[in-house]
């Protein structure tokens, strides 16, 4: 019998040249493609922050994207990942860009 994949939740903040390069748009599209829920937004400090939730394999893929790839034209310096949690069920539905 296969065990269901764990559902994870993690908060993130991406530093570097990440605003004005459609980072949030690409992040939303990538999250939807991977079946992840969550949100993201630009901060006044010039970073992108948010929360992603979903199956571990999708989260793992998104963590790589957030730390190394990003949107075309972005230059990621670093990504802080905090508040890792295992969830019994998703707390968020869909993926949104907040303002």
TrEMBL record:
GO molecular function annotation: acylphosphatase activity
Q: Which residues form the signal peptide?
A: none
Keyword terms of this UniProt record: Hydrolase
Catalysed reactions listed for this entry = an acyl phosphate + H2O = a carboxylate + phosphate + H(+)
Q: Which Pfam families match?
A: Acylphosphatase
- Using the record's annotation, list all stretches that form the Acylphosphatase-like domain: 9-99
User: Which InterPro entries does the record match to this protein?
Assistant: Acylphosphatase, Acylphosphatase-like_dom, Acylphosphatase-like_dom_sf
Asked whether the keyword Hydrolase is assigned, the reply is yes
SUPFAM superfamilies, per the entry = Acylphosphatase/BLUF domain-like
* PROSITE patterns, sorted: ACYLPHOSPHATASE_3 (PS51160)
Q: What EC number(s) has UniProt assigned to this enzyme?
A: 3.6.1.7
Name the family the entry cites.
Belongs to the acylphosphatase family.
**Name the record gives this protein:** acylphosphatase
Protein species of origin: Cryptolaemus montrouzieri
């Amino acid at each position: 019998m296969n065990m269901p994949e764990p559902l994870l939740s993690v908060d993130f903040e991406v530093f570097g040249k990440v605003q004005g390069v459609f980072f949030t748009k690409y992040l939303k599209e990538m999250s939807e493609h991977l079946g992840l829920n969550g949100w993201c937004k630009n901060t006044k400090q010039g970073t992108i922050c948010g929360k992603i939730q979903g199956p571990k394999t999708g989260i793992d893929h998104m963590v790589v994207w957030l730390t190394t790839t990003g949107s075309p034209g972005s230059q990621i310096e670093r990504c802080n990942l905090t508040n890792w949690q295992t969830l019994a069920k998703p707390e968020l539905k869909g993926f949104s860009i907040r303002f």
